[in-house]
Specification:
alpha/beta; 6-stranded antiparallel sheet; Rossmann fold; Jelly Rolls
């Protein structure tokens, strides 16, 4: 064997080792540790620039779980990780009537399907005859390499040319012929007959027997289909509904000892509150606030992290009729100053932790509206001491005949936009009713349950998962008042407190799966959900692998309640936001407001010409222009892009203003982020547009690596190559930038326009 041949064999073996490492998901550092060599030496071996010792190859084989000969030769009937079939070497499995089929993976063990290289000879006679059809179990994918192929599936006929493909259920009668006067070559991937067709994963029904006759059913209930999926919502007495009086106080009267909240503070101190406790404390707080001059219609900001006093305060404001404005403790002087003036804030209830109160004081110095400052968990000059004072007041607070309810304003949320200052979304007292579906059919909250939503009370998601819907379902909520998210601290809590349902943004799930979840007992969890940003499929599958639980995705905005979701009793499609929830008439429209067809990208809109859903906001406070810009012609425009499949499921594309326009292409960042997140050394990723003099814009990936991974130029090239081979060529990531952290909103969403 000449030196060139030796070098080729060496490079083949090195490439095979690298491919096996990537298939299994090991990093270079992990393989260096398993083969007892320094990382730089391992990288040289993998690059094939020096001889590979047999001891090194043997250790690689052990790490990959294959025979040494399998790794050396690269083809074996025993190889279970991968096989290679050279051009023209696939064994012929059929050759008759102008058809030749070659199996491209004959030796791969336990394959889910089989790839074939197929040649169809052109026949003039076939052009004038019906296409012969047949069926077999599974599914089939066909990609035309050369020529043209006429395919019949059921009663539908399609002509495919070079580069075209088709995917179909092969249990449907199907057949094909070569057309256009020449032979056709195509690649076919067929689920083997031995592999049963995978049925849809159906989310189970909720615990209907124990959750009948809920107190909230006086105001809202749902018609369900035979699978327990809600199909229509019914509202009654909504015009007089006040959540604090009609839900919390009523449960307290009928089931006063029922657990409402299990609270764990930052020092791991536990507090348990019954519904009677919550009723009494909110009444005391309402009397306390009234003594401080807080009246109906006043705007009161709540910057209380996850302190249990938040629940006392917001319910008290609902009883008084003052408008609650949740705010994060992460705000600084100019943030507070803008919010005080924009909303006309007259009072603030604020955490004593950290620097928040100081920032409030700086902003208050120039505020014309702020009169009252109330501190929780501390003392400060010029501030009332909530903890020392509220308990001095009566536990009795009677509902007045003209108590706030129905369409009266109840909540304000500051919601960030892509440009300008945050807008103020206003919600009415009917808003909690919209979260009945959120809790019962998405979160699966129930009377015997303990629901855990990871969110700070300063943004809307807290009210999705920490208050309204859960207590309407008479479920308890679990609250952990932490400063920084540490997966290793949270994971043991599931077993310790028997948490039954869980909701977190995808970022939190990513952090959880980076831990060794197998060492924690998560058996108490009945259901897991996510929202806030689109869920990466890799995170979905890794969490399912670790826990056996499928994460049900949902979608909504600060301006809405849950609008899209994978609800109980329905088929769950990984990666999909689900179907429209009852009460929301959703559509996808183009830039001119015209509906788009299934499979086409469009903006998600809520159609309101035939009625406004319960839970949709009233408008942007004191900003008629922005309200009309978002809500016109009988449609509320979300600004979010998606496409809809033939089954009615919506699939997220991105924000309308996040779309990258490069060389005439419109590129959604999320798909590229999904691909990059598949790499084991990537912790977080945000894809954005970067200006380019030739293409207008190019794709830029900003990446946070897992601890211990070096952001080298070689790694950038590796990531670029991975994207290039896993997405369409026009989505090529031309710029890769490693960062220690990514800019995020207060709700944890990546701000792509700041990347």
């Amino acid at each position: 064997m000449n030196q060139t041949a030796v070098d080729n064999k060496l490079h083949e073996l090195a490439r095979r080792i690298r491919e096996m490492r990537e298939i299994i998901g090991y990093t270079s550092a992990q393989m260096a540790e398993r083969t007892d060599v320094p990382v730089d030496v391992y990288l040289r071996y993998e690059e094939g620039v020096c001889d590979l010792p047999i001891s090194f190859i043997h250790k690689c084989a052990l790490a990959f779980g294959v025979e040494l000969t399998d790794l050396l030769e690269g083809h074996s009937a025993k190889l279970s990780s991968y096989t290679v079939t050279r051009r023209g070497q696939g064994p012929v499995t059929a050759e008759e009537d102008g058809i030749m089929i070659q199996n491209l993976a004959p030796m791969f063990r336990q394959k889910l399907g089989a790839p074939y290289w197929v040649t169809y000879k052109y026949s003039e006679a076939q052009q004038h005859q019906p296409i012969h059809t047949s069926t077999h179990a599974g599914q089939e994918f066909d990609l035309v390499i050369k020529g043209a192929l006429k395919v019949q599936v059921g009663n539908h006929t399609e002509v495919l040319h070079e580069g075209d493909s088709i995917f179909y259920k092969s249990s449907t009668p199907h057949g094909m012929i070569a057309v256009d006067g020449e032979d056709c070559l195509f690649l076919a991937f067929v689920m083997e007959s031995s592999a049963p067709e995978k049925a849809d994963y159906i989310l189970p029904q909720t615990k209907e027997t124990q959750d009948t006759n809920l107190i909230c059913n006086e105001f809202v209930y749902a018609d369900e289909d035979e699978k327990g999926t809600p199909v229509e919502l019914h509202f009654r007495n909504a015009d007089r509904f006040n959540f604090a009086f009609d839900i919390v106080d009523q449960i307290a009267r009928q089931q006063g000892d029922r657990l409402a909240m299990l609270h764990v503070d930052n020092q791991k101190q536990e507090r348990r509150f019954t519904f009677r406790d919550i009723k009494d404390a909110s009444n005391q707080t309402a009397n306390y606030f009234t003594s401080l001059g807080i009246r109906r219609g006043d705007r009161v900001m709540l910057g209380l992290k996850r302190h249990y006093q938040f629940w006392f305060a917001i319910l008290a404001l609902h009883k008084i009729g003052a408008i609650a404005i949740p705010a994060t403790n992460q705000l600084v002087q100019h943030d507070f100053a803008y919010r005080f003036d924009a909303a006309g804030v007259s009072a603030i209830v604020c955490t004593g932790d950290g620097d928040t109160a100081h920032q409030v004081d700086l902003a208050a110095a120039n505020s014309k509206t702020l009169k009252t400052k109330i501190l929780v968990g501390g003392n400060r000059d010029g501030w009332h001491d909530f903890d020392a004072e509220y308990g001095l007041f009566s536990r009795r607070y009677l509902r007045a005949d003209d108590a706030p309810c129905g369409d009266d304003p109840m909540l304000m949320f500051f919601t960030s936009g892509t440009t300008g200052y945050p807008k103020i979304a206003m919600h009415s007292y009917k808003y909690p009713l919209g979260h009945y579906v959120t809790a019962r059919y998405w979160h699966w909250a129930h009377r015997d349950g303990l629901h855990f939503t990871i969110s700070e009370t300063g943004w809307g998601k807290a009210l999705w998962g920490k208050l309204y819907g859960q207590w309407m379902c008479e479920s308890a909520v679990f609250v952990y008042d932490f400063d920084r998210f540490h997966a290793e601290e949270i994971l043991p809590m599931f077993a310790k407190y028997h948490i039954t349902t869980f909701c977190a943004p995808p970022t939190m799930y990513r952090m959880l799966i980076k831990q060794d979840i197998s060492q924690y007992d998560l058996s108490s969890i009945e259901h897991a959900t996510t929202a806030g940003e689109a869920l990466n499929p890799e995170v979905f599958y890794q969490f399912e692998k670790a826990t056996g639980l499928r994460i049900a995705e949902g979608f909504g905005q600060t301006e809405t309640t849950l609008t899209l979701a994978n609800l109980t009793g329905g088929a769950l499609k990984p990666g999909s936001m689900g179907k429209p929830t009852p009460g929301y008439h959703l559509d996808l429209v183009d830039a001119d407001g015209n509906p788009v067809a299934d499979g086409e990208n469009g903006e998600i809109v809520v159609r309101t010409d035939e009625g406004v859903p319960c839970g949709l906001f009233l408008g942007y406070y004191l900003d008629e222009e922005k309200t009309k810009a978002a809500w016109h012609d009988g449609m509320y425009h979300t600004g979010d892009l998606a496409w809809r499949d033939e089954d009615g499921y919506f699939w997220y594309v991105g924000r309308a203003d996040d779309v990258i326009k490069s060389s005439g292409y419109r590129i959604g960042p999320f798909e590229i982020e999904n691909v990059i997140m598949e790499l084991p050394y990537v912790l977080e990723c945000g894809v954005s547009a970067a200006p380019d003099p030739v293409r207008g814009q190019v794709v830029k990936a900003s990446i946070v690596l897992v601890q211990g991974t070096d952001g080298t130029d070689e790694l950038k090239k590796e990531i670029q190559q991975y994207v290039k081979t896993h997405t369409a060529p026009y989505k090529y990531t031309r710029i890769v930038e490693f960062r220690t952290e990514l800019p995020k909103t207060i709700s944890g969403k990546i701000i792509r326009n700041k990347l």
